[in-house]
Amino acid sequence: MDAALSTRPLDWRTDFPAIPDGWAYLDSAATAQKPRAVIDAIARGYAETYATVHRGVYQRSADMTVAFEASRRRVARFINAGSPEEIVFVRGATEGINLVASSWGRDNLKPGDRVLLSTLEHHSNIVPWQLAGAEIDVVPLTADHRIDLDAMAAMIGPRHKLVALAHVSNVLGSVLDAKRAARIAHDAGAKLLLDGCQAVPRMPVDVADLDCDFYVFSGHKLYGPTGIGVLWARPEILDAMPPWQGGGAMIEKVTFERTTFAPPPQRFEAGTPHVVGVIGLHAAIDYVDGLGLEAIAAHEAALVRTTREALSGLNSVRLFGPGDSAGIVSFAVEGVHPHDVGTILDESRVAIRAGHHCAQPLMAALGVEATARVSFGVYNGVEDVSALIHGIARVTRIFG
Ligand SMILES: Cc1ncc(COP(=O)(O)O)c(C=O)c1O
Which residues share a beta bridge with 377? Predict the structure, then answer.
């Protein structure tokens, strides 16, 4: 057994009531299970302290507003943002990228301007740029399935106004050298957006150190509630961005002739927000910070090593992605459709994801229609890897 697995500091699995004994949940890249601390915070938010925010003159609403804004400060501290005003609450990473594409894109992407993406992007970091009318160029992958930053440096030019890349690939687990990507983008006069969906649950993220311009992530992959996520952007960029949705809470003054808008982040938070989602996100961040992102990263790295070693011993299995992927391993079993792999594993109480993972261009580049994917969370242990490997052995027996 890998040393890092045997020195796991706590039995983290017991924090997760929805994971019964004997069930190997290996689909955390899709969505993470919730620890008791998050479930309790959400329950309290509805059962004890519930009220709207930013509007009420009564004490309950004022208290909820304090809790809501405390969460914004907590998020800012979590990713080392300069101030809480740089944190915009959105529904998730998808909405965060759509916000940037619509708002920043409206002012900054002129006809002929281009956006640089990579082959491994999630659809939510492709389609919003198409909807914004941007011309798209695609950075290829290296032989070991990382975003090829040498190729990016050779491709980028003055028409590229933005580079938008996954910090960690949801299919391959490849970790981007984000600081180098930022240098290359900035040297060419482009901004860098990082899709941090798969990074924030797996490694410490410091937006100042990364030197990116935009960072997005979803709460539900970080052990928090669904329906809440974060867009961070540099304050001078947010200040200059026009609103993208109109409604309550984002205005300064409204007349039928003219409306003036609130400063960020309120300018981008039209309507009643997901109040309890924001409270739950605070609890989720406290939870992962309590375990320690370094410890989580080491734990998942050990699980990945063990899994890749075991899978590479099976000659019917093809592995994708680099050897040091972050918490995610994609593979194919020769002659067996990934959906069949997933269905047979489910019979052995092993839950994995099978499909294109919202990354159809990547599937095309890999020359497959789909992959089987395991993705780890803090609750997984070596017993889950064993269950997976036994399950794969059964798959190969069934399919001869
Ligand atoms: C890398 C990446 N980007 C974006 C998304 C979209 O996240 P959401 O559906 O929570 O908005 C996901 C979700 O799978 C993802 O893994």
Answer: none
Q: Residue 400: its pLDDT value, please?
A: 77
Position 305: which residue type? R
Which residues of the chain carry a pLDDT beneath 50? 1, 6-7, 9-10
Q: 359 C-alpha to center of ligand 1: Å?
A: 10
Rounded Cα–Cα distance for residues 214 and 222 (Å): 18
For the stretch 176-222, pLDDT in tens is 999 999 999 999 999 999 999 999 999 999 999 999 999 999 999 99
Select from 82, 349, 117 the least CA-distant residue to 236.
Answer: 82
Q: Catalytic residues, which ones?
A: 358
In ligand 1, the atom with minimum distance to the C-alpha of 94 is 11
Max alpha carbon distance in the chain (Å)? Answer: 73
Task: Evaluate whether 78 touches 196 at the Cβ level (below 8 Å).
Answer: no
Give exposure, 154-163, as e/b (b: 16+ Cβ within 10 Å): ebbeebbbbb
Tally of CB atoms within 10 A around 44: 16
- The string of pLDDT tens digits covering residues 289-321 is 999 999 999 999 999 999 999 999 998 999 999
Shortest CA distance to 303 belongs to which of 386, 237, 222, 206? 386
| Predicted local distance difference test score (pLDDT) of residue 315 | 83
> Pocket residues for ligand 1 (CB within 6 Å)?
29, 92-94, 122, 124-125, 166, 170, 195, 197-198, 218, 358
Q: Is the pTM here over 0.85, yes or no?
A: yes
**In the block, residue with structure tokens 């040091």:** 324
Task: Output the pLDDT for position 5.
Answer: 53
Which residues, other chains included, contact 349 with Cβ-Cβ below 8 Å and sequence gap of 6+?
Answer: 22, 23, 24, 387
CA distance 305 to 135: 39
